[in-house]
Each structure stands twice: as C-alpha cells, then as structure tokens.
Design a protein that fits this description.
This protein has helices at residues 12-21, 72-84, 143-156, 176-184, 195-203, 219-232, and strands at 29-33, 41-46, 50-55, 62-67, 89-95, 107-115, 160-167, 188-190, 207-213. It is an alpha/beta fold. Helix 1 (12-21) crosses helix 2 (72-84) and helix 3 (143-156) crosses helix 6 (219-232).
Length: 233
C-alpha cells in the first residue's frame, strides 16, 4: 500500500488510473462522507475536493472518501469513481438538522427524500457508461441497508430515527413552500448532502443509503456506530 499522497486534481477516470498505479484495492464497500469520520484511515489520494483511502486494520476492504468541497458534482464524481473501483454497497454520510425532533435524535436514516432544490446530479448529457438516461428511482435508499443501520445505531447508543430528507434551495433561508412541507411532516430532516450521491449510485444500479448526523453526536458514539456498521454491512 503506497503512502505517498497524490496532490493533483483529475477527472474521475484519471483518478482511477492513478489509484490503480498505487495499488488501490478493489473495495466492494465504500463510505462517502462530508462529515469528518473518526476512523483510522490510510489516505493516499488528496486534492482540493476530497481525500480517498482505505481503513487501516479492518477485516473488510472498505474505501473511505472524505469530502472537502461539498458540492453536488463532487458527490456524483466520487460515487462514480468508487463504483469503477469495485464498490457494490455505498453508505453516504452528511450533515443534517431536524426542525422537529422531540426525542432528540442524533442519527437520521434516510428512507426517502423530497427535492425542491431544482438540482439533480443527472442533469445534462447522459453518459451511458454509468446508466440509462431516465433511471428508475424506486427504492433509492436501500431498505435492507437501512435495517442494518437502524440496528447498529441502537446497539451503539445514539438516538436514531428513520426520516425523510428535505433538500431545499438554500438550507440557511427556507422558502414558503419548504416551510409548508416541514409543517405537514414531522419526520423531516433538512440537508443538501447525500442526495446527489444516492441518485448517482441508483443510476449505476448500486445499493446505497444515507445517514445524516446531528452536530450533537459525540465522536465516541460516532466511532462506535461506524464500527458496528462496518462489521455488518
């Protein structure tokens, strides 16, 4: 395993070539996150947008993709790169906040989303290498993976709930429509993370789901949760 970190920015096809040269292993499980992950990771690709590496001292081959520049396009390109390197199951992790959370939940498992942002990672010319022009989005967030996440969260201790993600145009300034949606549904969590990765994964027929993490979750509980997930996913 190479320790040298590549410090240049390429298209995902160029990144794949570079990682292959550095013996990046086939990794059927990937974690792609805009939240700092408290895991001991060997990063050996780095650019202004993200870092890529693998978990040290773990029995399963798992790739870690730590996002620095949190944009929709970055979520899409990382997902495609990870898929080209053998990923079959992907866990997306992002930041989110719940307008109504009477139980004080710290971990939100996404079961579906409502996208009123006008954004979609598949807008524009379609690349047939990744999937059909109009992919079926049924079961976008994998129910089997969600069941594992819920069990792992309960074992780890942090308060967890299944939720619907509202993707607003601007999470810092909600529109009248977005506020109306929140008033109609009390299981909403608001985030601009994760959705672009999930859509991109579904475009390639990959199994994936998403977690949104509240800022109150401690590093200790987060680490325990991640290790539980990695043992079972």
């Amino acid at each position: 395993m190479a320790e040298k970190i590549i410090e240049m920015s390429f298209t995902h096809r160029d990144i794949i070539k570079q990682l292959r040269e550095y013996n990046f292993p086939d990794t059927p499980i990937a974690i792609i996150s805009s939240v700092h992950l408290p895991l001991e990771t060997n990063f050996f690709y780095s650019d202004k947008n993200y870092q890529a590496g693998t978990i040290n001292n773990f029995e399963k081959p798992v790739s870690i993709w730590q996002i620095k520049n949190n944009t929709m396009d970055i979520w899409r390109e990382i997902t495609r790169t990870a898929a080209a390197l053998g990923t079959e199951k992907t866990l997306f992790i992002g930041k989110g906040f719940a307008p109504y959370s009477p139980d004080g939940s710290q971990v939100h498992i996404i079961t579906d989303h409502i996208n009123v942002s006008g954004k979609n990672p598949l807008i524009g010319p379609n690349d047939e290498d990744f999937g059909t022009r109009f992919p079926d989005m049924t079961g976008l967030y994998d129910a089997e993976l969600n069941s594992i996440l819920k069990s792992c969260s309960e074992d780890a201790g942090p308060l967890c709930r299944e939720t619907i993600c509202l993707i607003p145009k601007n999470s810092l300034k909600l529109s009248k429509l977005e506020k109306q949606i929140i008033d109609l549904k009390n299981d909403i969590v608001i985030s601009e993370d994760v959705f672009a990765g999930a859509i991109s994964a579904k475009h390639m027929s990959l199994h994936s789901t998403g977690l949104l993490i509240d800022k109150t979750l401690s590093g200790h509980n987060f680490n325990k949760l991640l290790n539980n997930i990695l043992k079972r996913i």
